[in-house]
Each structure stands twice: as C-alpha cells, then as structure tokens.
Specification:
The chain is mostly helical. The chain is built from twelve helices and two strands; from the N terminus they run ααααββαααααααα. The chain starts with a helix and ends in a 5-residue tail after the last helix.
Length: about 325
C-alpha cells in the first residue's frame, strides 16, 4: 500500500513537472504550423533526411548499376553503339529503368541525386551549427561587455576576418590540409560566423539596458548567469534564423566549390554532378542530368530558410 502511494505520488510529481513543458511545445507547434512555408520546409527536410538515412530504400538502383548492364555483378562491356547513346534520357523499362535518365557513364541520375542527400545534409547542418556555436557566444560576450577591451578585441578579430576572402582562403586551406569534406566545412564555418557575431552583438547591446537585466545585476546575479539566462533566450529567434541561413549558405557554397573543382571527389554530391556535366560538355544537351541536382540544391537551401523564419516567430519571447 505504501509502495502504491509512493508510486502515485511520483507519477503526480512527474506530471506536474512535464505538463507545462508539453503544453508550451503544443502551443509552439501550433504557431509553427500556422506558417505554411515552414511546414513545407519541414517536409522537404524530412524527405532529404530519409534519403540520407536509407538511400538504398528510395533509389531505384545501387550506385554500381550501369545502364544496359543491369544490376551487378556483371562482366559484360557496353558496346560502342550503347556508349554513343549515353547520357541517355529518362527511360521506364525499355531498354532499362532510369526515371531521370543517366549520365555519360551510364549511372542513374535519380540514384546519384538520392545518394548525394547525405553529403549535403551533413555539410549544411555541421557548418551551420559550427558557425552558430562560434558567432552567437562571441556576439553575446561582445555586446554585454560593450566598449571594453573584451568587445574591442572581438570586434578587431571580426574586422580582420572580414578582410579574408572566402575563395582564396579555402584554396590555401585545402592546399595545406588537402581536399576533404571536413576541411570544406571548416573553411565555410570560419568565414560565416561573422554576421552572427555582429548582429547578436547589436541585439545584446540593446537588451543589456533593459530593466530586467538591471534588476538581475542588483540581485547579485553573475555576468555569466545574466548573459546565458536572461539575455540569450531573447536572442534565440535571431540565432535560429542565422543557423538556417548558414546551413543554406553552406550547401550553396559547397556546390559552388564542387563546380570549381575544389570539393572532395571521392564523395557523391550534387555539386560534383554539376561539375561533371560541365566538364563533359553536356550542359545544353542533357537537361535530365543538369536540372535534378540543381533543383535538389535549391529546394534544400530554401527549406532551411523557410524553417528558420518560421522558428523566428515561434521562439520570439514577445509572442
């Protein structure tokens, strides 16, 4: 009997602790779903996430599949006539199944697009998070200690970094460290946290003059507590927007770098697909090879922007 009462008491305590949080989540989700573009962005991200997790389930073929030869293993070689028909436009079972056609080597475009999603998601999320983890805290500290040597030091670093051109910096980076996905992410993050820092600093300069911050100081709260407990929740909306923008920017930057030949060609990516069609001279002939990777890049970048601006409204303390 005593055990049952204790269990009931623990359950009641658990409900009291979590019910307000669940209710806040429900209200936030309700506000988020009011933004149709945000819901659309979330659906696009969900599709790309599923492609990243289980590409073999969604792709019509494996990466080794080659038109005219079917599924591996195979020992046959393409005939000269078959090679001359590549890249092949979309085919739906005659002479093979390739809904978005093939490239000049006979690999399915739809298969390559699906398998490339994991690379884009990894680069976008990793570079966006890394940029925010650097820019947001530095902007908070710089704004809170405005007009002090701490603020001056951070802002002078920002000024120097702004004078660092992105493309030459990345060329030097890959020349020293080699072309790899990790180095690409580092290069993008190093040059993308600056806008975060400057904007967050300006917002923090305004927030630190608010009455609740002055009250926290009078009550004896430490600077760390004031920054991360009282000011940071109010700049989270901006942080979400910049995180989404940085993720989208990283995806576009990686695609541009791949197009210029500065990407890891051992990985599969949409940018490398565009570089291949440019290098092999089929830009004006093989639309089925050109449009899908470009459209995939556009949709993923747009999805991050849609979610970011919707989250700005959801997390705004004034709402």
């Amino acid at each position: 009997m005593a055990t049952e009462q204790r269990d009931a008491s623990n359950l009641e305590s658990f409900k009291k602790r979590w019910e307000p949080r669940i209710e806040r989540f429900r209200r936030s989700w309700g506000r988020f779903t009011e933004h149709k573009m945000g819901v659309l962005g979330l659906l696009i991200i969900l599709v790309y996430s599923l492609w990243s997790i289980a590409p073999g389930f969604f792709a019509p073929h494996s990466l080794e599949w080659v038109a005219y030869l079917g599924e591996p293993p195979h020992d046959a070689r393409l005939t000269g006539e078959q090679i001359r028909t590549l890249p092949h436009p979309p085919a739906f079972g005659d002479p093979f199944f390739a809904p978005l056609g093939t490239n000049s080597h006979g690999f399915g475009i739809l298969t390559l697009v699906i398998y490339s999603a994991s690379n884009a998601m990894y680069i976008g999320i990793a570079a966006g998070l890394l940029s925010s983890l650097v820019g947001v805290p530095l902007g908070l500290i710089s704004g809170f200690y405005g007009d002090t040597w701490i603020d001056e030091t951070i802002q002078r670093v920002v000024d120097v970094m702004y004078g660092l051109p992105f493309l030459p910096f990345l060329i030097v980076l890959v020349a020293i460290r080699g072309i790899s996905t990790t180095n690409i992410i580092i290069g993008i993050a190093v040059t993308s946290w600056l806008n975060n820092c400057i904007t967050i600093r300006g917002e923090t300069l305004s927030l630190r003059e608010r009455s609740y911050v002055e009250s926290a100081k009078v009550a004896g709260a430490s600077d760390t507590r004031i920054i991360f407990r009282h000011i940071m929740p109010n700049i989270l909306p901006l942080s979400f927007v910049f995180l989404a923008q940085d993720a989208a920017g990283a995806i576009l930057a990686q695609a541009a770098l791949a197009y210029l030949g500065l990407a890891d060609f051992t990985a599969i990516s949409w940018g490398i697909m565009l570089e291949n069609i440019k290098a092999e001279g089929y830009v004006f002939e093989a639309w089925w090879w050109l449009i899908p990777p470009g459209l995939a890049i556009t949709l993923l970048a747009a999805a991050f922007y849609f979610i970011g601006f919707s989250m700005e409204d959801v997390t705004n303390p004034q709402r």
